[in-house]
Amino acid sequence: MSFSTLPTSASWLHKDARSGFEVTYFEAIDDGWRAEGWTTAVEDGVSWMVGYDIRLDAGWMTRTARVWGRSPVGACETFLASDGAGRWLVDGEAPPHLDGCFDVDLESSAMTNTLPVHRMRLAVGRRADAPAAYVRAVDLTVERLEQTYERVLDEGSHQRFDYASPAFDFACPLVYDESGLVLDYPGIAVRAQ
């Protein structure tokens, strides 16, 4: 499975679970990719904004993620670093609950569902676990999020994966474009550009 080249930018309209907007810029760097973006939203009556700068190696494993934000709890920032073998540092500390995670997943972002799909490159009919270092939107706390992806359909320029996150009792089909970016994340976001 291969994806076409990423666009220089993409954006998503967040709707249903929250009202908001996300914009991401992509850049090829010496040893992989950089994704820099911002999301602003209101969810359950609480407003927040989250910015991120995520660095990925050539195999699409998250190597660093600097995340900053503002919400009613105040301004906050966190820095995650991965050794590429499933071990993490969060603000310099090594939380064992993140062992075995290869991706960062931001609660505030539809874009971060791109990362495991690129990293795993599943064939149609294949399913894989993709536990992630999950960063909450309001206070940027970092948790472990168990999730799975199964590639179920390839329609040329569109690909569909069945996604599940047992912690949230949530499952849905995710539709991606030819570059591996989410087009439709039911209940969360749709691609705007």
UniProtKB/TrEMBL annotation:
Lineage: Bacteria, Bacillati, Actinomycetota, Actinomycetes, Streptosporangiales
SUPFAM superfamilies for this protein: PA1994-like
InterPro entries attached to this UniProt entry: Glycolipid-bd_prot_put
Organism: Acrocarpospora corrugata
Designated name of the protein: Glycolipid-binding domain-containing protein
